[in-house]
Design a protein that fits this description.
seven-stranded parallel beta sheet, alpha/beta
């Protein structure tokens, strides 16, 4: 069991409200949830009981971890995951993003759609600009984000994305390695700020 003292106590995770066409996505979400619980890292997520969001939350809970769901009041209540450690209600999607970032020490995007990308790049832009000290990572399960990463590299080659900014977005296909790298960056950021 992982027992290191971590400066990452809670991770905001963005992922899908559907399962997608490949069982790998639900499996990776469940594996990531198990690892979070084993490391005693709390999950902050959108509160949904559907798709890979459900797989993630249920895995954290099944392994004795804590889950905070931040659920928009404008969504139907039947979509809310039951049995969460804590549920916070947000008046809007924008408020949900703010609350999730406020509660988290780091951010991870699992395979997902437009909402996942919106949340990730909103957080990453704030991190890159120095408004938050919460490192951001992509869990590139099954190569899901390969084309996005190539696009970002093309942005660097085109001179529209600074190389040092591109390097700040951590990507790995290994959940444990991704968390290790987020922890390293978070510790370095906290040291610089302190």
């Amino acid at each position: 069991m992982y027992c290191d003292v971590s400066s990452v106590r809670q991770v905001a995770v963005y992922c899908a409200s559907s399962f997608g066409r490949h069982p790998l996505y639900a499996d990776v979400a469940a594996e990531f949830g198990r690892i979070l619980a084993e490391r005693n890292i709390g999950l902050v997520y959108g509160g949904s009981g559907t798709g890979t969001m459900q797989s993630l939350a249920e895995a954290v809970l099944a392994n004795g971890g804590e889950v905070t769901g931040v659920f928009p009041s404008e969504f139907p209540r039947e979509l809310l995951q039951s049995g969460l450690t804590r549920t916070l209600e947000a008046d809007s999607l924008a408020e949900r993003k703010e609350l999730m970032l406020e509660l988290a020490d780091a951010v991870v995007a699992l395979p997902g759609g437009f909402g996942t990308l919106d949340e990730l790049f909103d957080a990453f832009s704030r991190f890159k600009l120095g408004f938050i000290s919460k490192p951001c990572g992509l869990l590139n399960a099954g190569g899901y984000y390969d084309f996005l990463l190539k696009f970002l590299d093309q942005g660097v080659d085109s001179g529209l994305i600074a190389k040092q900014d591109r390097e700040m977005l951590i990507a790995s296909d290994d959940p444990a390695a991704l968390l290790d790298e987020l922890e390293r960056v978070r510790s370095e950021s906290a040291f610089r700020i302190g």
